[in-house]
Amino acid sequence: MKKVLATILALTMALGMTTVAMAASKTQNIVVDGDRAYTYDADDKELTSVTNPSTPGKTYYYLVKNKDDKYNNGKDNITSVNALSNFKLRRSISEGSKAVEGVSFSMKEVKKIDGKLLADTNVFGENVSSNKFTFIAVSINENFTSNDIDVEMDVNIYGSSKYFVNDDEDYSFAFDYTFSYDETSAKSYISVSENKPLINFDDIDDSDPIEISFNDADVDIRFVVNAKGQKELFLRYNDDEVEAVVDKYPNATLDFHTFEGNNKTFKRTGKLYIPADEIEGKDGKMVAPYLYEIVDGKITTVDAKYDSYNQEFVISTNKLGNYVVSDTKLKTASNDDDDDDDDNTTNGGGTSGTGNPDTGANDVVGVAVALAVVSVAAIGAASFKKRTK
């Protein structure tokens, strides 16, 4: 009996220790040094200070330090990206969004800083437990579209009411630099503008995917597709409200992304990226918003994935349609259903909807077809811009 009690006691103590360890596996308070950037050499495990982070193809690192007595025994270094799961990391780009490949938390093993051994420098302080450190990594595209690209971006880090960044619930630092690209390394791209929506793909002679961006969009909407042998298409973008949908769902916040005209089907399937901010769910957690497509004047579901890190929907498609992002799940009904409950339902995140309420949005397509005819006659085709590596 004593052995049984001893075993139970030992298990209880072990579970208690595990609980303590789990509780200390995440930090609640951090400090971000947004004023000092580094590059990282993986072979030598060396950080090098950079005063002007403006080289294409590089990743720049900003140190994130611990300010929590419970995590890592109060040591300054954060040894795991998982320890930062209490925090959200977002980018807000006002210019040069295509040049920014990604912003993320990253753990690196460091042995040297600016040519000196870590043990011989106190750049990161002396209160560290190992040579593992966590950073905010800003990655820049190696290939882009022109010689000089100005990037103006704020990197935002925020927690909730009990998680603090630099003694506040949120913190941001500016990443504003000019990147110079060689013409020989710029990648294939097409920029679509309102006054040149007719796109000619005749100059494409390889099967590498091209990126099609839309200059009139306020967000970074883009379509990446293999366009070799593609016929000419009319791809004008519009973010104007569709009044019938707005009237039907007056309590929802809606963002429209419509590709006008009936001539917008590609030979091959590509990926369409539609940025959309997360929304607050029932339990207070941030979740995906809702995405729908307007087809023949009716709200329909969309087969899309939501990338919570980049906060954007990714749709595999060969046809650019008419989309609406909602902060509220739209309770759809049949054409004959006129329930007052169709306005909105509960927040929760996702891409689904049921039924097909008539929105009258097919008028958009009719107007766009007429515009396409005018554009073909008066505007001509937009030029395809391409550089080869």
Keywords, separated by commas or semicolons:
6-stranded mixed β-sheet, 5-stranded mixed β-sheet, 3 helices, 12% helix, signal, transmembrane
Give your account of this protein's structure.
This protein is mostly beta strands. It contains three helices and 27 strands. The strands form seven sheets. It has a six-stranded mixed sheet, with no helix packed on it. A hairpin with a 4-residue loop joins strand 2 and strand 3 (46-50). It starts with a helix and ends in an 11-residue tail after the last helix. Mean pLDDT is 80; it is low at 1-23, 333-348, 352-357 and 362-389.
Number of strand segments:
27
Helical stretch count? 3
Order of helices and strands: HEEEEEEEEEEEEEEEEEEHEEEEEEEEEH
Mean pLDDT: 80
State the strand order across the main sheet. Answer: 13-15-16-20-26-25
Give the CA-CA distance, first to last residue: 76 Å
